[in-house]
Specification:
Elements: H1 7-18, H2 44-53, H3 56-60, H4 79-96, H5 101-110, H6 119-129, H7 136-151, H8 158-165, H9 176-200, H10 210-216, H11 220-235, H12 245-263, H13 266-288, H14 295-298, H15 306-316, H16 319-330
Helix pairs in contact: 2-5, 4-5, 4-9, 4-11, 5-8, 5-9, 6-13, 7-8, 8-9, 9-11, 9-12, 10-12, 13-15, 13-16
């Protein structure tokens, strides 16, 4: 009886038939830093996706700020929902361009694992505090390389690690799938942050300049569809991933508008000042009291500086845990008095 090919081999065959010549095929991965026994069912990129979804850092994203600190409403974007948005858009672009969806999704799911509490405000604060600076893309790579699995890391493939490190606009991903994630990140955060600003009453639809709305559309659905369609029409059968000039310019103008009206607004800066006082106080406390760090982090001090290790701990925190830890260290606890009349 003829033996059936394993599922992974079927995936390889499908990729050979249908992928663009510019795609990164699963069988062509440059591999992992530590060799492992391969899985008979899943490709290496599919295994990377699963490892990221089941890691602790991914779970914590649900309680990390995207734009608004600890919002009371149920429908504001968190770092987790942002990550899922990026993964969906990246897969849509990769599918349209006949690229490797599994690789794009794995990169997208891991791209913000190293993000701080309090969103980009937290990133700016830690960058100011740390003598080595702090950039969330580099910290995301450190999470998957070092911090997860009690210091063993997730041992991901080169292509996923490269995409995580280079997902920022200034990055240069080694694969087109990495470029899909980079552009998907920008499409996602501009649009859902704008929706959050509407939801919070900071902006209305009419506040968005008419020139931008005319090119991108008046709703989130229209804007995202316009961007993805532009990427497909511009990049199909090409060795790059980008929008056409008109959509790119309108998207950049919308990004600048968001920084001016939302990210750097007076209310946002007021909350950032509070976050800075909290993170600065905790940073200085743990620098002086490294023995108060959790055991997972004190063990890192054998290899890494205390400044790096404290940044590792603070950046891992959710918004709520950061507030809890600050209160635990700096806010006096109430005394329980004995009733002398009894």
């Amino acid at each position: 009886m003829k033996q059936k090919p394993c599922l992974k081999e079927r995936t390889y065959a499908i990729e050979d038939c249908f992928f663009s010549p510019y795609a990164c095929k699963s069988k062509d991965t440059q591999g992992r830093e530590r060799e492992e026994k391969p899985c008979s069912m899943r490709t290496d990129f599919q295994r990377d996706r699963d490892r990221i979804i089941y890691c602790k850092s991914f779970r914590r994203l649900k309680n990390k700020t995207q734009v608004f600190f600890s919002p009371e409403g149920d429908h504001y974007i968190t770092r987790l929902t942002h990550t899922l948005d990026v993964a969906q858009i990246a897969r849509s672009i990769a599918r349209a361009l006949s690229l490797n969806e599994d690789l794009a999704e794995a990169i997208a799911l891991g791209h913000d694992l190293g993000h701080t509490p309090f969103g980009h405000s937290g990133e700016r604060i830690l960058n100011k505090l740390s003598p080595n600076g702090f950039r969330h893309n580099e910290q995301s790579l450190r999470v998957v390389d070092v911090l997860e699995k009690d210091g063993r890391g997730l041992n991901l493939t080169f292509e996923v690690r490269d995409g995580i490190l280079n997902h920022r606009k200034s990055g240069k991903p080694a694969t087109l799938e990495g470029e899909c994630v980079s552009i998907a990140d920008r499409i996602a955060y501009i649009n859902h942050d704008l929706d959050d600003a509407f939801r919070a009453g900071i902006l209305t639809e009419n506040d968005v300049p008419e020139k931008i709305r005319k090119v991108l559309g008046k709703t989130s659905k229209e804007r995202i569809n316009r961007a993805i369609t532009s990427v497909f029409q511009t990049s199909a059968d090409k060795n790059f991933v980008k929008m056409d000039d008109e959509v790119e310019e309108a998207s950049e103008n919308l990004r600048v508008f968001m920084f001016d009206k939302v990210y750097f607004s007076g209310s946002a800066r007021g909350e950032e000042e509070k976050a800075e006082k909290m993170l600065t106080a905790m940073y200085e406390y743990f620098i002086q009291n490294t023995d108060k760090l959790p055991q997972t982090y004190t063990s890192l001090l054998e290899k890494y500086t205390k400044e790096q290790t404290v940044c590792d701990y603070l950046s891992s925190m959710t918004d709520r845990y950061a507030v809890y830890t600050f209160n635990k260290i700096f806010v006096p606890k109430g005394w329980t008095f004995i009733d002398e009349n009894n």
